[in-house]
């Protein structure tokens, strides 16, 4: 139960809220903002969070952590929507869905505020009269588009304040036909503006209209016998048509549409936008999301629609979304209309060609998310190995790590497990199980000595490569015995550490006191993964061995079960597993087994199932 004083303090604050629209900020005990929301009526919305019996999983999790409340009132719900986006970017609250890393995506800028505009890449959008296109989620894609524009359109590329008071000699771009040379003052502002208009239509996706206008201008130039100009226009038409031929036609009505798909995995997610312009699939944008652990598709898409479409420079006419994103989008659409002077339609197709495109977008989102997660893991593993080499003073990068653990149940059925990680990832072919030969009882240090001696002897005899690091699941005593085994084989040079469970401390051979490192560091996360995998692998094997041993005598230990009845039971169930899974009613069906004896057998089996190794 939440502390009554905390609830009372929050309830007193809520009394002052009234029915104003605005944003509310839930904070935890450390004063950190953990959730930002908006509401048409702050008081009633905030009060709804204080019910401990919430149906919504996210609200239940939030209720556990909420400690304090803050709010900002606004004049309208539309203002609250914009403020919500700003506050989420500022505080990065863990219960909100948000664009991962909140980095500034690049835009292409056409500097229309100048007499002779140029096109360049920027991450800052200014309200200065220039035209911006984006955002681009891939910097390479933005650069490729810029290079394409410079190849097709002879726009200037050198930063100059034009017109110049004194014309200068044009650069190499002019002589290569890639610039009209406004720096030498022989091109009018009107002629240059025509070129800029072509670029704007190209970036707006109006390529069909652009090609039609260029063809008309080419014919006009040819009629006037301006053959050089007609030739330049023809080249541009051919280059634009080459691009259009590579683009897939997905809409015969030639509309401008965005098709959105999402993929989620735990707290991470990815949204992909397939951009259709003039009926052709022009490209794909992919956005990483985080904060999805307690959020459904509707909330994820609501957050993305707000963060993305309130910051774009060109709106599509229609945005297609999966049916799971259906909800109340009125405030979002009203805000779009107010900001841009035009609106967009949200559609949720359940069948037909658009549904197929939604599936395609979702598949692209899955692939992008998988690629991002794998890249993140690979990066973390590389960082972890480098940190291990540095912190543990290892001679080489620990590309191969082995870890050993002992498992038994109160000294019985002792086994050892060895796991291998290569390049920071489990390498299952290197996993090993060991049944103890020299020990039967509680003697973990002695067993560790035995298994390390057996493992290293095998590597030497078979001339197999030695590990870069051996981790012992245990403290100083276990590590010391493992080091003894290595030294006896003249292999004391192999780096070896012990990882104690309680405090996650690291022991080094020959040193009495352990070392502590940041438990959240990549190095410690990798060591814990290795240690936990060794423990899991060993416990599973120990449990299997004990159950095999117990099953062997399960029927022998039950009173009133003779050879004939044992035979009947095994013949009826055909396997020992089916015997252990049998109900009392099923046991009664066996010849010679009555209700009383069936209950005895059942109770004995259930007591066996409760056996768990350490």
UniProtKB/TrEMBL annotation:
Keyword annotations: Cytoplasm, DNA damage, DNA excision, DNA repair, Excision nuclease, SOS response
UniProt subcellular location: Cytoplasm
Name the UniProt record assigns to this protein: UvrABC system protein C
Record domain GIY-YIG: where: 19-97
CDD domains in the record: GIY-YIG_UvrC_Cho
A GO term for molecular function: DNA binding
The protein's role, per its UniProt record: The UvrABC repair system catalyzes the recognition and processing of DNA lesions. UvrC both incises the 5' and 3' sides of the lesion. The N-terminal half is responsible for the 3' incision and the C-terminal half is responsible for the 5' incision.
Biological processes, Gene Ontology terms: nucleotide-excision repair; SOS response
Gene: uvrC
Assembly: Interacts with UvrB in an incision complex.
GO CC, one annotated term: excinuclease repair complex
Family note: Belongs to the UvrC family.
Domain called UvrC family homology region profile: residue spans: 271-482
Primary subcellular site in the record, as a coarse category: cytoplasm
A Pfam family assignment: UVR
PANTHER family: UVRABC SYSTEM PROTEIN C, UVRC/OXIDOREDUCTASE
Lineage: Bacteria, Pseudomonadati, Spirochaetota, Spirochaetia, Leptospirales
């Amino acid at each position: 139960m939440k502390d009554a004083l905390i609830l009372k303090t929050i309830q007193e604050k809520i009394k002052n809220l009234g029915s104003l629209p605005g944003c509310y900020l839930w904070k935890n005990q450390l004063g950190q903002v953990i959730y930002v929301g908006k509401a048409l009526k702050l008081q009633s919305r905030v009060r709804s969070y204080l019910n401990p019996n919430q149906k919504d999983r996210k609200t239940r999790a939030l209720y556990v952590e909420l400690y304090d409340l803050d709010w900002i009132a606004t004049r309208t719900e539309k203002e609250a929507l914009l403020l919500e986006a700003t506050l989420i970017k500022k505080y990065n609250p863990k219960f909100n869905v948000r664009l991962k890393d909140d980095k500034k995506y690049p835009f292409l800028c056409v500097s229309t505020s100048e007499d002779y505009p140029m096109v360049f890449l920027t991450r800052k959008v200014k309200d200065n009269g220039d035209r911006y296109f984006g955002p681009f989620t891939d910097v390479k894609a933005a650069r490729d588009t810029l290079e394409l524009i410079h190849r097709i359109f002879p726009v200037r590329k050198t930063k100059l304040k034009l017109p110049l008071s004194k014309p200068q000699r044009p650069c190499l771009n002019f002589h290569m036909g890639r610039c009209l040379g406004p720096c030498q003052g022989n091109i009018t502002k009107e002629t240059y503006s025509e070129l800029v208009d072509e670029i704007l239509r190209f970036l707006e996706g109006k390529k069909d209209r652009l090609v039609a206008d260029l063809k008309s201008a080419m014919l006009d130039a040819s009629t006037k016998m301006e053959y050089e100009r007609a030739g330049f226009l023809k080249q541009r038409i051919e280059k634009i048509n080459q691009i259009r031929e590579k683009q897939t036609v997905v809409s015969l009505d030639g509309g401008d549409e965005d098709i959105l798909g999402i993929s989620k995995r735990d707290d991470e997610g990815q949204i992909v936008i397939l951009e259709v312009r003039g009926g052709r699939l022009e490209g794909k944008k992919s956005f990483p999301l985080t904060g999805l652990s307690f959020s459904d598709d509707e909330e994820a898409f609501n957050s993305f629609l707000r963060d993305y479409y309130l910051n774009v420079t060109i709106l599509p006419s229609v945005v297609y979304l999966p049916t799971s994103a259906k909800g109340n989008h009125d405030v979002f659409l009203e805000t779009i209309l107010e900001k841009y002077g035009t609106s967009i339609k949200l559609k949720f197709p359940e069948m037909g060609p658009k549904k197929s495109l939604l599936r395609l977008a979702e598949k692209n989102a899955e692939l992008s998310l998988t690629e991002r997660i794998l890249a993140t893991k690979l990066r973390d593993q590389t960082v972890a190995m480098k940190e291990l080499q540095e912190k543990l003073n290892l001679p080489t990068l620990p590309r191969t790590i082995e870890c050993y653990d002992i498992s038994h149940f109160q000294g019985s059925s002792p086994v050892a497990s060895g796991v291998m990680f290569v390049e920071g990832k489990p390498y299952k072919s290197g996993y090993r199980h060991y049944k103890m030969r020299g020990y039967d009882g509680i003697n973990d240090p002695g067993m560790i000595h035995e298994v390390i001696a057996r493992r290293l002897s095998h590597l030497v005899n078979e001339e197999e490569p030695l590990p870069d690091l051996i981790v012992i699941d245990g403290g100083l005593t276990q590590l010391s015995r493992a080091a003894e085994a290595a030294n006896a084989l003249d292999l004391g040079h192999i780096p070896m550490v012990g990882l104690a469970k309680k405090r996650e401390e690291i022991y080094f051979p020959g040193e009495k006191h352990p070392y502590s490192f940041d438990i959240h560091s990549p190095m410690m996360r990798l060591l814990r993964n290795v240690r936990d995998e060794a423990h899991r692998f060993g416990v599973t094997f120990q449990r299997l061995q004990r159950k095999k041993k117990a099953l062997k005598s399960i029927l022998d230990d039950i009173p009133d079960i003779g050879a004939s009845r044992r035979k009947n039971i095994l013949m009826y169930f055909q396997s020992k597993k089916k015997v252990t899974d049998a109900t009392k009613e099923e046991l009664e069906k066996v010849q010679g087994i009555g209700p009383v004896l069936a209950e005895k057998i059942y109770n004995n089996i259930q007591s066996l199932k409760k056996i768990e190794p350490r």
